[in-house]
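task queued by scheduler; priority normal; single chain, no ligands, no partner chains; default sampling; output format set to structure tokens
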Amino acid sequence: QTGRIEPNYPKICGHQGNVLDIKWNPFIENIIASCSEDTSVRIWEIPEGGLKRNMTEAVLELYGHSRRVGLVEWHPTTNNILFSAGYDYKVLIWNLDIGEPVKMIDCHTDVILCMSFNTDGSLLATTCKDKKLRVVEPRSGRVLQEASCKNHRVNRVVFLGSTKRLLTTGVSRWNTRQIALWDQEDLSMPLIEEEIDGLSGLLFPFYDADTHMLYLAGKGDGNIRYYEIGSEKPYLSYLMEFRSPAPQKGLGVMPKHGLDVSACEVFRFYKLVTLKGLIEPISMIVPRRSETYQEDIYPMTPGTEPALTPDEWLSGMNRDPILMSLKEGYKKTSKIVFKAPVREKKSVVVNGIDLLENVPPRTENELLRMFFRQQDEIRRLKDELSQKDIRIRQLQLELKNLRNSPKNN
């Protein structure tokens, strides 16, 4: 259904601060992970048929970051493994079967801007405000490759499927927007750098591994450029661009199994247009007249079945995603149900560090309450100190009088 929704339409409103990122679970279609300025990550279960009333209770609340949480990402092949990146410069890996963080990646020196997985989820690429691009082995937290991007200040990164290449968007030393292609095993120099334009908005990259297409959409732009990625030089071939007068603030993407294969739809964006207060679907369609299933543009694609359990992945196993065909259309076959764990522990210990010890206030109200409590405590301690000073002076006088009394002489 399309059209304007009512102003009092039900919402998910359980966070105590601004929501900074949300991601749908790739294997359980009614589960969402969200993160917020209130330092929490929360898991929400959307009831069958959609929301009927405002949802304030999450099925799982995850606390481990000491500052606001800016990014969440689901593992691409393993069920119930979630990554979160906070403004405390840490990436936590959560095992939702137990509702606890099981690993911590602590190699960044500034705010993490973007995270991307390779096809089987064995590698994690990150961009950081410290102008570095890193390829990390997530289970050990070991940095395998690192690029110090002085000429190309990186903002976003995406793995290009199974090609062992990375694509980053960023800004050149002359403040022009540019993209760079990297070999994941050698980040000493980019394979190519290409300048896009002189605008200032962030460039969001989206890669479709099935068609080898790269889509570039700029924040505040009205257009979406698309390129074909090749295995040989020049690697990037510009095709065309979608143009629109309405600027986009952000974009979401429909999973492959939700596309209309009968219309040769190969990609679908959901464009957030803040000026008009709407979300506009944008379909990328291959113009073909034949109504038969097009095998070449719809190869086998990662499906909705996880390839590994959390314990298998944490033990060191890697496995490619389980593929599905879109020929018969999407049928809901997954029987996986999310079960929130029962937790009683008050401490969260990862790598020998209690993450919940001395956690700072999560909201402005909490900060004010803590401030006033501390002011009262300081006032009480000052009064106590002054009383003790008076008592000390009294005892000193009494001691002096005792020494000077005639009896002692």
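post-processing summary
- The first strand starts at residue 19 and ends at 24.
- The chain has a mean pLDDT of 87.
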